[in-house]
UniProtKB/TrEMBL annotation:
GO terms for molecular function: 3-chloroallyl aldehyde dehydrogenase activity; aldehyde dehydrogenase (NAD+) activity. One of its GO terms (biological process) is aldehyde metabolic process. Belongs to the aldehyde dehydrogenase family. This is Aldehyde dehydrogenase domain-containing protein. The lineage of its organism: Eukaryota, Metazoa, Chordata, Craniata, Vertebrata. The chain holds residues 75 to 543 of 559 of the full protein. Keywords: NAD, Oxidoreductase.
Length: 469
């Protein structure tokens, strides 16, 4: 661990001996030089990120396979394609996004210029988690570069192979005076956070989010916190059970359930639970065959610690489907738990694995009360053939994002903002929202030197004015 190969050598060490002070001050000097501001520079760096994705495609698939047995289609879709999509949207729109935004003026300023300048913040820190180890550093990085910032990237130390790949190869593509990778876990990140950054973009768990925000507060650094939590999924009695089962099973078991916006638990009536069970069994068998352990399309749990935590949750409710585990492989079968109680362990924490609890409720009103009684989730799902029911759930709840009659798909649209609310985070990104997140919206007024009589009414002595006071 330490400063990755991609980073510049330390230029100096401050008296307090912070190991990253030299790196941060080097990046700050680059930012102050104005190098990252021209559009051509930003475009060149973004295009280099595109080449990184093309050249390293195979290595990315291999590294994420080693880290969590990520199936290659899932890695291609979520780590490469989504990033390329973001890159294309950004490159196609950057000149428009960068333009000054002219705003309404009052009578006195009719001949002046009032506009919003999209200024880079300066030196930005991006901290990423392990579950989508490429996408979750790269998509914020696209926004940070597009907005003209210098960036320190801190990938997760848990997804070791991907961390190594990023540290060893990203520097071959990006300007090393402006973009650096710092590797390591808690001790390294703690030291890194002692430095003053101009913006911190963090993706990870709510408890660590609090630590990041506390560290940022010492320097009054603004933050985006992309956090997690339990995402409810309400299934009404009026729905196409087969389609619901396929869409829920896909969202829950993609990346072996290690997805921040995965449906965390189902809320439905006892009758719907009965109907869903054979449909979920069929969907799971169709996706992963009779023995998902042998399927090339089903991933593994990232670490022993996560595996132990997940295995302990299998005691909640009753195992209706799956439930098999293999510690050596860190395998947990796609599992559905029926009749789970709100007091069961599976309902006390974000599951973040291939386990789907079903909590029985009496009706939609009870489901809505259940959702509103808990921390506001990152994503909320509602399934019904009756659009009024989907609308009711949307209108009477609050969450970071919402998707009716499907799971995960809302995050694939760069035109939609992505982010949490309350316990699931603060701030937005994706597409133009990323650019805006990493830009300071600087309110500017440029006046002419002449036309002084227009200013006369505001100058003292005020006693000469007659404003009718
Ligand atoms: P985590 O919070 O443990 O770690 C995230 C990052 O923070 C890592 O780079 C890690 O090195 C660093 N870190 C951990 N502890 C730290 C500390 N004490 N001080 C400073 N830095 C520290 O999260 P994780 O386990 O990597 O990821 C899982 C969590 O992330 C889940 O809660 C999930 O919902 C959430 N998540 C959210 C999103 C989103 O877009 N909102 C996306 C993916 C994951």
């Amino acid at each position: 661990s330490g400063i990755g190969k991609g980073s510049v050598p330390m230029v100096c060490s401050t008296p307090c001996g912070n190991p990253y002070a030299g790196l941060v001050s080097h990046l700050r000097a680059s930012w102050l030089s104005g190098k990252t501001r021209p559009m051509e520079y930003r475009v060149a760096q973004l295009e280099a990120l595109g080449r990184f994705l093309d050249d390293k495609k195979q290595e990315i698939l291999e590294a994420t396979e080693l880290d969590m047995g990520k199936p290659s289609f899932e890695a291609f879709f979520s780590e490469i394609l989504l990033c390329k999509n973001e890159l294309n949207v950004t490159l196609n729109n950057l000149s428009q996004w960068m333009k000054d935004e002219h705003v309404d003026k009052n009578l006195v300023m009719q001949l002046d210029s009032a506009f919003i300048r999209k200024d880079p913040y300066g030196v930005v820190l991006i901290i990423a988690p392990w579950n989508y180890p490429i996408q979750l550093f790269l998509v914020p990085l696209i926004g940070a570069i597009a907005a003209g910032n210098c960036v320190v990237i801190k990938p997760s130390e848990i997804s070791k192979s991907t961390e190594r790949l990023i540290a060893e190869t990203l520097s071959c593509y990006l300007d090393n005076d402006c973009y650096a990778v710092v590797t390591g876990g808690v001790p390294e990140t703690t030291r890194l956070l002692e430095n003053k950054f101009d913006y911190i973009f963090f993706t990870g768990s709510p408890p660590v989010g609090r630590i990041i925000m506390t560290a940022a507060a010492k320097h009054l650094t603004p933050v985006t916190l992309e956090l997690g939590g339990k995402n409810p999924c309400y299934v009404s009695d009026t729905c196409d059970v087969t389609n619901v089962a396929r869409r829920v099973a896909w969202g829950r078991f993609f990346n072996a359930g290690q997805t921040c916006i995965a449906p965390d638990y189902l809320l439905c009536t006892v009758e719907m639970q009965e109907k869903l069970m054979p449909a979920l069994r069929e969907a799971i068998t169709e996706f992963f065959g009779p023995n998902p352990r042998e399927s090339p399309d089903f991933g593994r749990i990232v670490s022993d610690k996560q595996f132990q935590r997940l295995r302990a949750l299998l005691g909640s409710g009753r195992v209706a489907l799956g439930g098999q585990t293999d510690e050596a492989e860190r395998y947990i079968a796609p599992t559905v738990l029926a009749d789970v109680l709100p007091s069961d362990p599976a309902m006390q924490e974000e599951i973040f694995g291939p386990i789907l609890p079903i909590v029985v409720i009496a009706n939609m009103d009870e489901a809505i009360d259940f959702i509103n009684a808990r921390p506001r989730p990152l994503a909320l799902y509602a399934f019904s053939c009756d659009s009024k029911i989907v609308n009711q759930v949307l209108e009477r709840t609050s969450s970071g994002g919402f998707c009716g009659n499907d799971t995960l798909m809302h995050m694939t649209l760069p035109s939609l903002p992505f982010g949490g609310i309350g316990n699931s985070g603060l701030g937005l990104y994706h597409g133009k929202f990323s650019f805006d997140t990493f830009s300071h919206h600087r309110g500017c007024l440029k006046r002419g030197m002449g036309r002084e009589p227009l200013n006369a009414p505001r100058y003292p002595p005020y006693s000469r004015k007659n404003f009718g006071l």
